[in-house]
Amino acid sequence: MAKLKEKAAEDNAPDRWEAQLRKGALEMAALACLWQGRLYGLEIIRALETQSKLVVAEGTVYPILNRLKDEGFLAAEWVEAEAGHPRKYYALTAAGRRRLRQMAEAWESFAGGMARLLKPVLAKEEGRR
Amino acid sequence: MKNGIEIETYLGELRRHLGPMTLEERDEVVREIQAHIRDAAEQGTPVAAVIERLGPAAELAAQYREGLLLRQASRSFSPLTLLRGAARMATRSAAGIVVFLCGLFGYTLGAGMVIGALLKPFFPDKVGIFASESYSSSVMSGLQTMTTTTRTAPHEMLGIWAIPIFLAVGSLTLLATTMLVRAVLRESQRWQTRLQ
Fold first, then answer.
1. Within 10 A of B188 (CB to CB), how many other CB atoms are there?
2. Which one has a higher pLDDT value, A74 or A57?
3. Residues in chain A within 8 Å Cβ distance of B193
4. A57 SS3 class
5. Average pLDDT over all residues of chain B
6. B71/A24 CB distance under 8 A
7. Higher pLDDT residue, B110 or A3?
8. Pick from A59, A67, A78: which is nearest to B54 by CB?
9. Could you identify which of A2, A84, B53, B96 might form a hypothetical disulfide with B90, taking C-beta atoms 3.0 to 4.6 angstroms apart as the criterion?
């Protein structure tokens, strides 16, 4: 019984933790997609998937984009496509660029610290046999 | 055709659950989600799958509404909206309680003084700052017209000057309260975002 509970705990825990981790990084990732130029919603989702392997629930991205726009980090405008329906394009504002820079630097410093901490954990276990 | 109905149903539900947003904002959201569904469908994903990946309409709406009250409040100048924002903050933190009480106090005080200034011409003896020989007290607003027994009748110190003084101080208090609550709501937003 105890073993089963342990196994169940092990299976659930990393998923939940990982999900929290992704959620925290998503804002920064969304902003980063727009560093080179403007994109519309679906393009941002695809970029996140292909470039960062960040598979996101699409229902999460749009509210985040909306919030970033409300906070002044993104500017949005509807653009008519030649042979189709209009699309809502997002672009970084000056404040957005500054904020992204800030987040990226914080991320790098954090990741660096974690890498140092985790080095022994990730080292190959050859010596221990 | 069936797809069209599915999409309309989903969008309709989404719109319904976006309640607290302004009409304009709701239209924007629905329009964007509609464009998303159409784009994804054009690229080959079946509509049903697109809708499923978006998640239940109610949950999608909930994500849009997350933090919305605080964002709206921090951009508003209306005392009611600001107090509602502060009240929401109060449910989450002790700082929020402090902000809410300060806001309440500030608005009450400021409004009281302005009203006092407006009533002064009609009730000159009831509004102002009072002092007497046996005790001195400051009764700052005509709203507190309690009868107290005193040995000598308190006389009002400001006279006609009560009107502009109360008006000015009251207005400044209202302004300061508004600015303070707004600033705190703004700051708390930034912390919220980080913790999520």
1. 21
2. A74
3. 27, 67, 71
4. coil
5. 81
6. no
7. B110
8. A59
9. B96
